[in-house]
Amino acid sequence: MKKTLIITAAIVSALISGCASQPLSTFDIFHAKNLNDLVSSGQYVQKADNFFVLNDSSLSMDEDYLGAGYPAQPSPNKLAVEKEILNRINLTIPDLKLTSSIRSFGFGSCLGWSFTRLNQAPSPYSKSAFGSGIDTLTCASGGTPLDSGIEETTKDLSATTGNIAVLILSDGEVDTDPVPAVKSLKQRYGDKLCVYTVWVGNEQDLYGQATLNQLADITGCGFGTTAERISSTVGMAKFVQSIFLKGNTPPPVADCSTLDGDVDGIDNCKDKCQITPKGAHVNQFGCWIVDVKFDNDKSNIKPQFYHELDNAVTVIKDNPGVHIEVQGHTSSTGTAAYNQRLSERRAKAVKDYLTRNTPAKKTLTARGYGLTQPIDTNETEEGRANNRRVQMEVLK
User: Fold this and answer.
1) Domain coverage including residue 163
2) Secondary structure of the chain in HEC code, one letter for each residue
3) Is there a single domain that holds both residue 201 and residue 285?
């Protein structure tokens, strides 16, 4: 019944809106890093044998992309940025023997009036063939039935052998829960399968980033990233390398429980923030936390917490020239949009206090991350309390 309602709504939406065509955007030239030397030297060996792409071609991808890293004329929509990411991946992949495939999900004439379309059937990878597959992603329409795309990808993979990398590009604004489909995919292919996600969204899509990260975490070997983080030559090279290559002879790894790189009292195994200035107050995860408690729905700092901020002022003065980001974070209680605004207000309140008491105005920035970067579980009150934090991170 639920699926029938989704189909009906998708048809009505597609008939009203039509099929949104991608504006012709010309991106600045991307200079890819050559990774072939890593393979030819024997330092790295091939990790993935199959590379399957699931691309969001729903109507929301026709919205303008407001993030950084993809300058183009005219300004691109999110679908154009997805295609540019795939083109940059294609330019960066070293000379490997792969099977590749591209599938899109959405609805309407862009996808032949189906929830998903096989744009490029599984076939031997070549840069020219993969590029032709990217070119078939011409427009965006309909809802976001990511679960249907994953279910069909399961069938696409039936003839594969070797290790599999599935890449999902989306803004994460899905119509139905894709988690069961990814769990089923993982159950079928086990340790051979890794899922990677790239969030191609704007500020109002932040909750979708958390959804995509959750999908990547299910496989245990993939991870989620954002379009902005992999936009540079170096960022893209690291991303491609992590998907397709692994070290051939990794050096011995020291016991992290005996190491404390930033001398903050938290060993490297537990330390999630390993560049902490001396004297900073850290939590059990080694992150520089400003222990300020806010009242519900408030961002004003109460006087009893001034001493904690004064300690941060001392640390900043003892480390002149260090660039620091004051980060506001929340638990998952409430909507993503509400938590985003709340985290921004609290980060700004702490930054304003610090800049009134130090000469570091030019080296302090404030940014809210809402609910997207938890350091603990959101399933318990203690975990949620740890996630509701103002954190200081050294940028350089």
Assistant:
1) 17-247
2) CHHHHHHHHHHHHHHHHCCEECCCCEECCCCCCCCHHHHHCCCEEECCCEEEEEEECCHHHHCECCCCCCCEECCCEHHHHHHHHHHHHHHHCCCCCCEEEEEEECCCHHHCCCCEEEEEEEEECCHHHHHHHHHCCCEECCCCCHHHHHHHHHHHHHHCCCCEEEEEEECCCCCCCCHHHHHHHHHHHHHHEEEEEEECCCHHHHHHHHHHHHHHHHHCCCCEEECCCCCCHHHHHHHHHHHHEEECCCCCCCCHHHCCCCCCCCCCCCCCCCCCCCCCCECCCCCEEECCCCCCCCCCCCHHHHHHHHHHHHHHHHCCCCCEEEEEECCCCCCHHHHHHHHHHHHHHHHHHHHHHCCCHHHEEEEECCCCCCCCCCCCHHHHHHHCEEEEEECC
3) no
Q: Spell out the per-residue pLDDT of the chain, length 396, in tens.
A: 444 444 444 444 444 444 544 557 899 999 999 999 999 999 999 999 999 999 999 999 999 999 999 999 999 999 999 999 999 999 999 999 999 999 999 998 888 899 999 999 999 999 999 999 999 999 999 999 999 999 999 999 999 999 999 999 999 999 899 999 999 999 999 999 999 999 999 999 999 999 999 999 999 999 999 999 999 999 999 999 999 999 986 567 778 888 888 888 888 888 888 888 888 888 888 888 777 777 667 788 888 889 988 888 888 888 887 788 888 888 888 899 999 999 899 899 989 988 887 776 778 889 999 999 888 898 898 888 888 888 888 876
Are 240 and 264 part of one and the same domain? no
